[in-house]
Every structure is written in C-alpha cells, then in structure tokens.
Amino acid sequence: MNNYKSFETDRLFIKPTIESDADFIFELMNTPKWIKNIGQRNINSIEDAKNYINNKILPQLEKLGYSNYTVSLKIDNTKIGTCGLYNREGIDGVDIGFAFLPQHEKMGYAFESSNKIMQIALPEFGIKKISAITIKENLNSQKLIEKLGLSFIKMIKLPNDSEDLMLYSLEYLLKKSN
Questions:
Q1: DSSP label at 4?
Q2: What is the DSSP letter of 87?
Q3: pTM score, two decimals?
Q4: Which of 15, 34, 132, 134 is positioned for an S-S bond with 141, CB 3.0–4.6 A?
Q5: What percent of the chain has pLDDT over 90?
C-alpha cells in the first residue's frame, strides 16, 4: 500500500483505516448508535470487517488519496472512533462523516478530528465542497455538522435508499488574485 497521509491534533492521531483496524471497525459498526444513526452494514465478524475495509475503504483511499480515518488518543493510542471524507453517490461534494464509541462521545473528539479533516481537505486533497448527511432524529450529529460550518440545504434520498436524509454543505470560496 502507498504511504497515505496521517494527521494529528493536540489530543488525537488520525490515520487511514487499514486491515489491521478490523477488530475496532467491527466493534464500532455494531454499536447500537451506529446501527440506529448510520445503518446496519452486516459486519458480523472480524472477517466481515476486513472485507469491508478491503472492498469499501481502501479502494477509495487508493483512488482519491482520502477515505475513512481511524481516530486514536495520543495519550495511549486507544482507537476511539472514525472520521473521513467519502465519495458518496448522490451527494454533491465530498461527504464528511464521523462515528465514535459511546464511551468516547461528548468529549470533543468528533469535532476535533472532523475539524482537522476539514482544514486539510482543500490544501491536501483539493476538495472545494464538503457535504454531510444525517437522519432527522440525530440531533447531536446535526449540531456537530453545523459547528463545523456546514449549512442545511434540503432533504434528500440517496440512490437505492428510501430513508430521508438531511443534506448539509459548505463550499470553499477561493479568492482570485489579480
């Protein structure tokens, strides 16, 4: 695999999710909040998690240079969540997403890691438009998305999905120099 960029904040390491993160991805994707707010991904074993990483996460990373990132605490390298940039069908712009284990919520980690990802999106990857989606019932996600500077645009449905989702967006306005 190529040497993809990792990032850090004062408290966190943010590194591309790879196959060795399968145990953690299995745990995270099977939390009740993940299933309720993001959806069942049928990750029923560590092997399923490895397949998900190899078939869903790594191909985008290899194609675009960004994808899902595993977020770990600097203090002890404990894996606590994920955030990332996703090239999602049906979304105008790159979708930013985040999810954390319940015991690591409400500590500012989701904002800290997602804000870092947004800060590097334009200079590192040339991304000019960031979008986000969430279900109407997920008020915490809506608050975080708005804190990141995105504005609600409209309700949408993704292709091959019947669920109504709230679409948020932020477009980077580049100043033209004379």
A1: -
A2: -
A3: 0.92
A4: 134
A5: 81
